[in-house]
Write a structure and sequence with these properties.
The protein has three helices and six strands; from the N terminus they run βββαββααβ. The chain has 109 residues and is of the alpha+beta class. It has one domain. A hairpin with a 2-residue loop joins strand 4 and strand 5 (47-52). Helix 2 (66-73) packs across helix 3 (75-95).
């Protein structure tokens, strides 16, 4: 089912999903449909995991405090945006036949 070792949008970090049943990226579809999406959806140990990765602490980041500052400045806006990412991703997941009967976990890292 395609690649199972994927990189972040900055090509700095690799995510190894080889022990997962599958991994999905909806980024291109979400952009076409004007939706928000999490970075990856995967199934591991009978759990569906929606993974949103924030790479604010990367080495040589231009503005490493931007992520925390953004949350502090407008926490409600930040969390509403995160919620939209999970909700829109869930709808796309179900639309492509994702199993809605399995336990789902949302992970913001």
């Amino acid at each position: 089912m395609g690649l199972k070792i994927l990189t972040d949008e900055n090509n700095r970090y690799k995510f190894d999903f080889t022990k997962s049943k599958y991994v999905i990226e909806f980024h291109d579809l979400a952009n076409k449909m004007k939706l928000n999406d999490v970075d990856f959806i995967t199934e591991y140990n009978d759990n569906i995991i929606f993974l949103e990765y924030k790479n604010a602490n990367i080495k040589n980041a231009v503005n490493p405090n931007a992520f925390v500052d953004k949350i502090k400045k407008e926490p409600e806006k930040f969390y509403k945006n995160i919620a939209k990412k999970y909700y829109d991703s869930l709808m796309m997941f179900w639309a492509v036949g994702g199993n809605m009967m399995k336990y789902m976990r949302c992970l913001l890292k």
